[in-house]
Amino acid sequence: MSRPSWEEYFMSIAEQVSTRSTCLRRKVGCIIVVEKRIVSTGYNGAPSGLPHCEEVGCLRERRGVASGERHELCRGLHAEQNAIVQAALHGTAVRGGTLFCTHQPCVLCTKMLINAGIVRVYYREGYGDALAEEMAREAGLDLRCVPGKGEYP
Question: What pLDDT, in 10s, does the model give residues 38-63?
Fold first, then answer.
């Protein structure tokens, strides 16, 4: 058995984090790494202390909202948002860090990652958000899709 690369190792942890998700549509998990040290984790779900979609149902499903549209019509925060918030809550810097995420960040999360100083994003599944990709490119945020195990650059 070969030892996993750092990228494989961190991506496997992001995938494990996604198992905590309470979203009924898509389980997303991520971690933020600075100098090969995990500084924060996040998964998608309702704010702390509030009922989860598992308990009250999916507002987006009830209203027929398509994936990628009307992000504000959701009880949950995205995994990337939760990871940034958790770092801030605990006074942990993420500037210069790398995000490992099960899914490509949407435009809202991309803007937050840019402002938080994240420099690279590894993700498994695409999201098809052209504006997010354009803004990442403009900001020099390095996006790397790694669709299968062991396919890291």
Answer: 999 999 999 999 988 888 888 888 88
- The neighbour count for residue 8, using CB atoms within 10 Å, is 18
Catalytic one of 7, 8, 15, 80? 80
Question: Rg for the chain (alpha carbons), in Å?
Answer: 15
Burial label for 63, CB within 10 Å (0-12, 13-18, 19+), is exposed
Residues found in the chain: 153
pLDDT in tens, 77-126: 999 999 999 999 999 999 999 999 999 999 999 999 999 999 999 999 98
Q: Of the candidates 35, 44, 45, 47, which has an alpha carbon nearest to the alpha carbon of residue 10?
A: 35
Query: Which residues neighbour 12 within 8 Å (Cβ) at sequence distance 6 or greater?
Result: 4
Q: Is 54 a catalytic residue?
A: no
Question: DSSP assignment of 46-112, as one string?
Answer: PPTTSPPHHHH--HHHHHTPPTTS-TTS-SPBPHHHHHHHHHHHTT---TT-EEEEEE---HHHHHH
Reported as type and span, the H/E element at residue 9 is: helix 6-17
Decide the pairing of beta strands 37-43 and 29-34: antiparallel
